[in-house]
Amino acid sequence: MTCGPFPAPGAANGRDVVRAGAARRPDPPTPGSDTRPRGPQWLGIDLVAQRWLFPAAGLVATALGGSIYAFSVFITPLEAEFGWSRSQTVLAFAVALVCLALAVFGGGALVDRFGPRWTLGGGGTLAGAGMAASGAADHVGELVVTFGVMVGTGIGLVYSATTIALAARWFPDARWRGTAIGWSVVGFGLGATVAAPLWTVGIETVGWRSTYVITGVVFIVVYLALTTLVRFPPPDWTFDGDRGWQHLSGHDRAQLGRQAQNAPDPADLTLREALDSRALWLLSITFFLAIIGGLTTISELAPFIESAEPTGLGATPGTAAALIVVFSLHNGLGRPLSGWASARAGLRHATLGCYLLMAAGMLVLAAATAWAPLVLPGVMITGLAFGSILALNPTMTVALFGASFVARIFGVVYVIGIGAGGLLGPPLGGAVLDATGSYVPVFIAGAVASMLAAGGAVALPDGERQHSTRTRALVTGGPS
Predict the structure, then answer these.
(1) In this structure, are strands 45-46 and 244-247 parallel, antiparallel, or unpaired?
(2) 171: Cβ contacts below 8 Å, ≥ 6 apart
(3) Of the four listed, 130, 256, 458, 469, which is most buried by Cβ atoms within 10 Å?
(4) Domains of the chain: which residue ranges?
(5) Residues near 405 by Cβ (< 8 Å), separated by ≥ 6?
(6) What is the pLDDT of residues 318-353, one digit of tens each?
(7) Which residues contact residue 244 at a Cβ distance below 8 angstroms, ignoring those fewer than 6 apart?
(8) Confidence label for 36 from pLDDT (cuts 50, 70 and 90)
């Protein structure tokens, strides 16, 4: 049994066995013959044997979606052409984040009902159409509808179809589940690494309108291609922690059925139970506070670097694109590093450390207005903290509430964190800039919010000890 680039899982730990499949062992093969059933095929590849293709698909899908974090490269040409204020220009980006978060929440139910393929196809087509239509925008309202509503919603549906729910189904073994989820979402951190320089070149050569249209076409082509791959495990296969994925005999299939195989773990919390938990609301609020600074930085980074001194740094668009790449690289690097840190320090302590790191990064960026060389470490620290926060929160959600209903439960966390944070952070940052003419109060406000998040993180439950029946009552205590 192969597991892609990693060795096959070792002994089960009790929760590594999908209970439906543990009831009966598949019939042994006839001695001397290779009767191992083949799993579902994609381009001649056995997807059961090569399940790491699904996190890889998530990486590609989220990399495209993560390109929206390079939105700030469009701010200067949009303001130059239309004379918009900063709070007007970033409104489309803020609405995109809200719609993305709402679509992640609703997309969990769509994935459960219709499967990942249809959700991915619909979301990818909507995102691509929105990008292409953004190239025809002449007013703020039009850009809000095309980029904000259409692109944001489409990317949220893509995220639901290709990341947490998909990886959790194909990796029920706790040994590899966190790694699979981490790789499936890492693209959101790396997407702007490619998009920022490509969009900068596109804007300078063919203009911002054509750049939007070309991006939309790429979205549709790639996302529709991925629909040929993504799917849930077939109903006639079950996972055993000792032997990996195993094919069920005809008798087993008749007895278990599809619903029995996918029965939720009774130790996992439902969405209703999670909503009655202090832990869910505390996790969501701290996520919201910590993410505001990062989202504001993303929306203002390019114009901060390009604006003339003393407001900005007075650098070229190429320098701004390069620093966005640095931010994105550290955003992506923070996701696996946060997993390494949480494995050694614990999820709660790792989360607390990342919130404090975000505050430090914002303060360094504020200081960069007085001494420009500080912008590089400020961008690196902020990007690293931002990526770590985005990786730790879904991992903490699984640890606290289990994997059975994680798509919907994390949707709540995502709506409050990214949705509300995106709705409030960038527009408020733009309004503060318009009122003061300085980026210093913008960055300081983000640092203060992150420090408040760190204070709240101290009260978070110890995630590694919550995902069990014994400690379930601690999680499901009433909301404060």
Answers:
(1) unpaired
(2) 51, 177, 179, 180, 181
(3) 130
(4) 44-232, 267-480
(5) 264, 268, 269, 270, 271, 274
(6) 888 888 888 888 888 887 777 777 777 777 888 899
(7) 1, 3, 8, 9
(8) low
Strand partners, 237: 247
CA angle 369/375/378 to nearest 5° reads: 110
Which region holds residue 115: left if phi is over 0, alpha if psi is between -120 and 50, else beta? left
Compute the distance between CA of residue 402 and CA of residue 164 in angstroms, rounded to an integer: 12
Distance CA 355, CA 56 (A): 28
Query: Among all chains, which residue has been given the structure tokens 């070149």?
Result: 201
pLDDT at 252: 55
CA distance 342 to 70: 28
pLDDT at 52 over 70: yes
pLDDT 10s digits, 166-213: 887 888 776 777 678 778 888 887 888 889 889 999 999 999 999 999
Check: pTM over 0.90? Answer yes or no.
no
Which H or E run contains 166? helix 164-170
Q: Among 3.40.50.11720, 1.20.1250.20, 3.50.50.60, 1.20.1560.10, what is the CATH number of 267-480?
A: 1.20.1250.20
Question: Are the CB atoms for 362 and 384 separated by under 8 Å?
Answer: no
Is the pLDDT at 407 greater than 60, yes or no? Answer: yes
Please list, in sequence order, all residues whose beta carbon lies within 8 angstroms of the beta carbon of residue 353, skipping any fewer than 6 positions away.
Answer: 341, 345
pLDDT tier at 473 (50, 70, 90 boundaries)? low
β-sheet bridge partners, residue 244: 240
